[in-house]
Amino acid sequence: MRTSIATVSLSGTLTEKLTAAARAGFDGVEIFENDLLASPLTPREIRARCLDLGLGIDLYQPLRDIEAVPAEAFARNLRRARHKFELMGELGADTVLVCSSVDPEAIDDDALAAAQLRELADLAQDFGIRVAYEALAWGRHVSTYDHAWRIVEAAGHPALGTCLDSFHILSRGSDPKGIEEIPGEKIFFLQLADAPLPAMDVLQWSRHHRCFPGQGGFDVAGLVRHVLRTGYDGPLSLEVFNDVFRQAEAAPTAVDARRSLLVLQEEAGVARPPAPVVPTGVAFAELVTADAEPLTGLLGALGFTRAARHRSKPVDLWQQGEARLLVNTGTAVRRDGTRLAAVGLESPDPAGAAARAEALLAPVLPRRRAPEDAPLDAVAAPDGTELFFCDARLAGWRADFEDVGEPAAGSAAADSSATSGTWRIDHLALTQPWHHFDEAVLFHRSVLGLRAEDSVDVADPYGLQRSRAVSNADGTVRIALTVQAAPGDDTVHAQHIAFATDDVVAAARRLRDAGVPLLPIPANYYDDLAARHEFADGELEAYRELGILYDRDEHGSLRHCYTRTVGRVFFELLQRDGGHRGYGARNAPVRLAAQHAVRTSTALTSQP
Predict the structure, then answer these.
(1) Distance CA 465, CA 449 (A)
(2) How far apart are CA 344 and CA 391, in angstroms?
(3) pLDDT (tens digit, 9 = 90+) per residue, 319-333?
(4) Exposed/middle/buried for 16, CB within 10 Å: 0-12, 13-18, 19+?
(5) 261-275, 391-405, 584-598: lowest mean pLDDT where?
(6) Quick one: which of 425, 185, 151 has its CA closest to 286?
(7) Is 566 strand, coil or helix?
(8) Which of 219, 295, 479, 607 gets the highest tally of CB atoms within 10 A of its CB?
(9) Alpha carbon 567 to chain centroid distance?
(10) Where are the alpha helices (DSSP H) in 376-450?
């Protein structure tokens, strides 16, 4: 289907918004009046610019508080409308949006509203323009789509139809099934937006918290299915008021918007991109560092062995059990040091996964490789993390590495008991730029086919940190996406890799014996644990001694501890018992405060 986006959904000047929409692959735009008024371009120049970009102007939004007003006010409204219709002729737009009145002086009289809209439509028809009447959720007297349709139907004018907006319909809890009773040819326009489900005034909700379909809690796809059953054949257009989007760069926001419509069309059954290929495991995580010694020393203490080296690149494979890390010293490193740069995802169909990603506008990454290197498809996630699709059956990427078989560093790690038990990557935690959090969730859900879990807000010492996990069905792939609440605070809001072990107490003791400090946890935390849970003799004392945190849900228990941060990365050791499914969100404020304390202490001791 034809796709469109309102210029209010993007940041920047009108020219920048049009360019971003065109490059993202949209067919048309809705031009918001404020964007036109602030533009140095004339309406004819805007029309020419859109033609050059291959964009149609599907809707113009200049008219409000038009109907159900006293005669003198309506006469003024018609004079204003005539001027706007002349402007639309220069602009090349043939549909105008009229929102239901919010004027306190509006009259509660449907017959008057229908008569005045019919007169407005008469004038519009003289200019070859259609009028799309939309019920605002906070309209003074008309606030539901069925009420707006009754007025349009009563007016009975061929140039007057209705505009349906998913936010205004779903935010009021209206049943969208009734849309099917509206003739498709009388639905002049369809505007789409999703939103979270908070308890707040609907106007504030609409003006600041809309999001693209698939990023909120509305069943937008269900509404679209009802609309399409009417025979509607117009564009699917996004109208999203969102404070974050208006501050973010327009180009990636436009791509995210276009992706949301591609996924929406798939869910509504009107498009069939390549089917999602859900990853079945984590093949490896790749760390990039300029100074490998602190990182590899920590890995050695954790019991990892430098098992192999890439045949043509300065990349080493460190492994313990099923947990595999690549340490790359050949890639340019940012000033913030060691970081998690790439993730290898085991896939039953790497080519299919890559095709799905490309169809949903994920950037396909060029890869510098020797002729004998394994062919690995890779795409970039919204935060820049490279995602490689690895064949789960062949492990072809491993053939690029030559075994070296070095023992792990450190006497404790060299002991055979250091690698006893099963180790694997339990989950990865990736910090997202504050303006790309919802985009990241939609990306991982739609491109990778992962399930999005409930969003969690966690208190840290200087604000709230928002986190949302995505995972496959059996939990072999878990990624926690966290928004960076304090820009520039890279120590606290860092990336981390969590390793699952069957005995976290033994693992923590080995680290301590190897001289590796774990994150110190305040004594008050353990006093609270004693009040909330009962423990076996000596159990709580061991947790207190080693800095192990504890959590319990309806499925089981979680024991976990953390290393200090190296660059932007720290490690978590965890033990899940009884099918515990969480990530220790209850303990996150304690962990964040402890990391702040360590950072502050380190900064003070490093001062001359």
Answers:
(1) 25
(2) 10
(3) 999 999 999 998 766
(4) middle
(5) 391-405
(6) 425
(7) strand
(8) 479
(9) 25
(10) 411-414, 437-446
Q: What is the pLDDT of residue 605?
A: 59
Measure the CA–CA gap between 564 and 571, rounded to whole angstroms. Answer: 8
Packed helices 504-513 and 539-546: angle between N→C axes, nearest 10 degrees: 40
Distance (Å, whole) CA 558 – CA 580? 6
| Rounded Cα distance, 118 and 67, in Å | 10
Percent of the chain clearing pLDDT 90 (strictly above): 66
Strand arrangement of the beta sheet that strand 323-328 belongs to: 377-380, 386-391, 339-347, 281-288, 323-328, 315-320, 305-310, 401-403
Q: Which residues are registered as beta bridge partners of 378?
A: 388
- DSSP letter, residue 271: -
Residues near 333 by Cβ (< 8 Å), separated by ≥ 6? 288, 289, 290, 339
CA–CA gap between residue 201 and residue 360 (Å, rounded):
34
pLDDT value of residue 408: 47
Question: Residue 370: what pLDDT?
Answer: 64
- Radius of gyration from C-alpha coordinates of the chain: 29
Cα(175)–Cα(251) distance, integer angstroms: 35
Token duo for residue 547: 């800095």
Band (pLDDT 50/70/90 cuts) for residue 392 is: confident
Closest C-alpha among 602, 93, 573 to residue 301: 573
DSSP state of 336: T
**DSSP 8-state secondary structure symbol assigned to residue 194:** B
| Cα-Cα end-to-end distance for the chain | 65
In this prediction the pTM is 0.81
Two structure tokens written together for 284? 């490896």
pLDDT band at 490 (very low <50, low <70, confident <90, very high): very low
pLDDT at 603: 59
528: its two tokens: 């609270």
Element (DSSP H or E) covering residue 508: helix 504-513
Q: Give CA–CA dist 206/572, Å, rounded.
A: 40
**Residue located via tokens 């501890």:** 561
Angle formed by the axes of helices 71-91 and 43-53, nearest 10°? 50
Contact between 330 and 313 under an 8 Å Cβ cutoff? The reply is yes
Tokens of 508: 């923590």
* Beta-bridge partner residues of 430: 481
Question: DSSP secondary structure string, 85-115?
Answer: HHHHHHHT--EEEEEPP--TT----HHHHHH
Which one of 43-57, 471-485, 522-536 scores highest in mean pLDDT? 43-57
Whether residue 240 contacts residue 9, with contact meaning beta carbons closer than 8 Å, is answered with yes
Which residues does 369 contact at the CB level (< 8 Å), separation at least 6?
375, 376
Q: Evaluate the CA torsion angle 41, 47, 51, 55 in order and state its sign.
A: positive
